[in-house]
Records
---
Amino acid sequence: MTIAVYPGSFDPVHNGHIDIATRAAGLFDRLIVAIYDRPLKNIWFSPQERTEMMRQALAHLDNVSITHYNGLTVDFVRSQGAQVMVRGLRMTYDFDLEYQMALTNKALIKEIETICLFTDLNYAFISSSMIKEVVAAGGDVSTMVPEHVKQALLARIARHSGG
Ligand code: ADP
């Protein structure tokens, strides 16, 4: 039984993430989507909110579980009895970062393999940070995220605009 972990900030989950998770769930016996609690990033949603959004987004997959974690990703992967870490690749700038991370993780725990899936061309331009920028400026992100995520983004904007 091969267990894979798909880690990330997922702030919030978007259609590019859903595509990678769906394809990874088809490749491995079990997929654990692992939401990193406190990344060094401008985070809009709590770990619980990101987990709940992910849960709804991946409700169509029956071999997937969703959780959040702290600390080193490779330690979390090992604690789950998983052998593989899944990452998604968009453009060449992702490659540099993923390559460095994969080598660092390999130096930490050599039994865990990183497998990168290339993005679907339709989602190559999508990123959580770009989505937050577009929503903050009043743009429509309907083609980039599921409806429940769009509603959560709009609610977050309303909360923070004092309205
Ligand atoms: P990070 O893990 O760097 O905080 P994210 O949470 O946004 O970034 O993404 C989690 C994983 O999904 C990363 O491997 C990232 O490269 C990948 N990913 C992000 N956006 C896309 C996309 N549009 N298509 C495919 N993979 C993506």
---
Amino acid sequence: MRGHFITFEGGEGSGKSTHAATLAQRLKSLGIEVVLTREPGGSTGAEIIRHILLSGIAKPLGAETETILFAAARHDHVLSTILPALKAGQWVICDRFIDSTRVYQGVLGKVDPRLILGLERVTIGPARPDLTFILDVPAQIGLARAKARRGKDVADRFEAESVEYHEKLRHAYRTLAEKEPKRCIVVDGRAPRDVVAERIWEAVEKKFKL
Ligand code: Z5A
């Protein structure tokens, strides 16, 4: 039987990595085999492309080229990591996936939706998420958390964008969730960590009848 595929989405510092890892741990404690992965990245080829994208050197090439690079990374990730795990009956938890492209490159980057959806169809094949958590926090809070965690390191290509940009992202994620209510659940990421984790767990228990 195919395993289940859960993705985490949201703005910078919204708590995706924290809650993807917490959920993976809780599922593992029940004896479930889990692959915890991320985008861009999650496979050897995709991690190389991640460096190019987050360094910002591809930004001058334009939003379309960045979109194609994200798609190339996803193609390798899906083929090398996600599909083999799902076929083996494992659960896959992924920190960012197709909705990041739809929001960052599509809504914010104004890339033609036909290119976004065409690349999506080609790269993901049957690897469509069963459930997506959208962690919702005001941009100021997310950016402050990311900055505190980063310390003296330089902000990456996306973190360096303005607060206004990050607020638009938040709005775009909420709109996306309204369009796909069966797959997407918006979780208030401002709540304390254990409260957020419990909300996520309740939704997983309900969806997959654990
Ligand atoms: N991108 C794209 O444009 N198109 C695409 O198709 C894809 C990606 C796939 C990847 O950046 C960038 O690529 C991303 C979009 C773009 N850029 N942005 N912005 P990344 O992987 O380096 O970073 P990120 O995905 O944005 O995640 P992040 O900054 O690591 O944040 P996070 O995973 O959402 O948050 P976190 O690491 O779990 O938490 C941040 C801090 O807050 C940390 O210290 C936690 O301990 C703390 N935290 C977490 N939850 C709480 C609560 N509830 N209360 C208080 N503090 C908390």
